[in-house]
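re the bet — no i am not wrong, look at it urself. input seq straight from the record:
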Amino acid sequence: MLHKLLSLFLCLCCAFPLWTTAAPAVALHYGPIAGLPELKLFDIVVVEPDHGQDPVAYRKTGSELYAYVSVAEVQASRPYYPEIPVAWKMARNGDWNSDVVDQTPAEWPEFFANKVVGPLWQKGYRGFFLDTLDSYRLAKQFDEAAQQAGIVRVIELLHQRYPGIQLILNRGFEIVPRVKDKVKMVAVESLFRGWNAGTQRYEPVKPEDREWLLGQLRTIRERDGLPILAIDYVAPQDRALTRSTAEQIKALGFIPWVTDGHVKTVGIGAVEPVPRRVLVLYNGGETPALNYTPAHRFLQMPLNHLGYVVDYVDVREALPAEVYQDRYAGVVTWFSGFLPENRIKPVQQWLQARLAEQMPVAVLGNFGSALDRPLVEALGIQPNSAAPRGSQQPVARDPMMGFETALEPATRAQFELVLRNGAPVQAARPLVEFKDQRNQSVLGGAVMPWGGFLLDPFVVVEVPGTDYARWVVDPFAFLAQTLRLPAVPVPDVTTENGRRLLFSHVDGDGFPSRAELPGSPDAGQVLLKEIFEKYRTVPQTMSVIEAEIAPHGLHPEMSQELEGVARRMFALPHVEIASHTYSHPFLWDRNVRHGTFSDNSEAAMSLEVPGYTMDLTREIVGSTDYINSRLAPPGKKVRILLWSGDTAPNAEALAITAKAGLLNMNGGDTSITRTNPSLTAIGPHGIQKGGLLQVYAPITNENIYTNLWKGPYYGYEQVLQSFEMTGTPRRIKPVDIYYHVYSASKRAGLNALRKVYDWAQAQPLHPVFASEFIRKVQDFHTYAVARDGDGWRVRGDGELRTLRMPAALGTPLPQASQGVAGYTAAAEGGTYVHLTGGAAWLQMRAGDAAAPAAPQGPYLSDANARLAEWTVRDQGRTDFALKGYAPLAFGLANAGNCQVRANQRLLTPTRAASPATPAVQQFRLSDAAAQIQLQCPAR
């Protein structure tokens, strides 16, 4: 049994990245860690186990949870507290409201091992942070030697009882020599800066105290050979001091962790997590729901493309009290009118607090209210005393202005800088400024030391007589400059191994429709024969509506035929199965009546199924069960729920879908074309409700291109424009051929589909299933990036395999990196870096791109399939495996002197190096999967 436990632990250790060093990155966090993906960047995370974390599941991230356990103190909230005899309680620690436990009773080690560590071991914890080892000194009387001997007995018993246990000691300097073979590292608190729990203040450590501590730590490191973890405390809003303190600790050769006094924020340690979230404030009273706010429709996409996850807060509700730069890169507000009267003061006070904490703030639209005096002073701007008069002359226009439409003067009062002694109180770079005939400054926006602002009508304007809109400002430039966003690696959901993703998904609408073709076959049969059976290298996601094809549905006389076609579709290997619900709800959230539902109480809510009342579980779970039991082949189940109708499910619907184990997609309405060439027509990655993610379809369906299927029925050809305009100058979306079954009911619609599929097959794309794309978007939302020495550490779930590196970061060095197979040029400059899995360490060559590069070995330039393996061996050999859905095509750079074999056959390049890519050779195989060996001359 002991041998099995030890073997299990060794296997678990193998889950860590191979490049983890002997001195791991360590973090401590005593709050709930759900929703804190940044922590998985650390090799060890010490947590408060009573928050219910799952250490076994967490281990899959490549990080290991250690449980915090207090050895010599206990609080009444602990479940084992009532079982501790009164006689064992030798003192009180008033600062932490805990009892000090005597370490000398003979029964104490057994109690601690069984009652404290045992339950945590059963939950899967294999590492423990032993705290309060010196607390016996709080007692008025104690036998130092006996107390220390008791602690040693505890540690010895833990090792006997739990083979493979890993321990971190917090202090306990005197006992370290006796247990050094049983301890992973020794921790100490407050080396440079500390937290005084009694006064609730952050304090610098006195030099003489630090020198004494350093003497102890150097002795332990040199005498006992143990690494040192130094934990310091800094106010969470002072990120600069947090960073410099961590650097001070690191310079001494210790493992740093600098956090807040309550250990509830993401601090800085051996690696520094990059905040990947932006908090957006909106007024929920301005639109029917979050889906329809300007912030979500227009702003989230640029933030997603820059690599950021957006969290929304409705200002009508309580505002979050703790918003720090450990997790948030900035705060954005976008209001279109005045806030509710009772929310003006709380919002202004909240913004002042963020400004005081030096959180970058960007204001769009308007401020939501008249500014009070404290906020005017904090912002350095004040409203114009009156609306502009007469003609206005431009004074300043930043290059980011006039992005998609001409810049017009404002007709309403704007702002001006606050002056003192004739000079602005804050340095400002005006974005748009006019002077009226009274020489009054009309300042519509500026980049400020605290962030910046841009007011209506200089943000987004509507195109008269249409549903279109245009950005007046370049949103990418505005966000980057006002929020002071640094150049960082961007997790990219559009690309894998350098190639843009390709997939197709079909909503089941119109499956029973009779096609306007000879014999009047049903549309589903036409789609099967003319598309699915002919385009077998395009992964398809096919859905059906239960009420349309089931024998208990709307067309029982056709059901046998329709179900037969569906079964044949689902049996195809390049088709994955989805549900498009039971009755195709048109309005998913009955509490949010928008569009036609807002002024038409008689509007249909779903297909008219006799005797049926809308039920979310029936729509989602019931339809899935129907497909799995009647239509799906053995071993193949429904993977995805494709939202119908308004594609705006509420949190309850998302929760039911997640509980059923289903992925979900649809919505987003990306429909940019040359008719509407605006970024406002490109949707974001998705939307979160109740902590659950709805993934949007990358490109909208033919219903939009055909005027709601009123014609022209060849209109879906315009999607090729959408593919082009979301691919350059920025690759914002993958290629998603998204349509309904009824497209196959019209000759023109079918021809349009063929044209789109033919175009897709002619492009150098990377085929995937829709489910794979969905998982990439999910991975994006929890992906973690950190600065790690002179490189970057990233950790994800292994679904998202591409980092887009801005040009400012330099050129990737695959041979000096870990978990990196190669790179290729990105559509907007910089590079796409190809990752081999969910964890990587990436090194870049900084400086002038024209400077001579260090010699590089061969690397993967591009591929149309996923890397199933990438192993660099000795003697110039690299083994890798590709697994895809189409005949393989891949490029290798710097491999001109190498032999390439696939499945034991020598390959010849189909295309040698070109002037555009002089070091890249292209290879093709007839197989969709291969084991490839690259043998180069040994250096």
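see?? The first helix runs from residue 2 to 13. told u. also Residues 428 and 448 are 5 Å apart (CA to CA). so pay up
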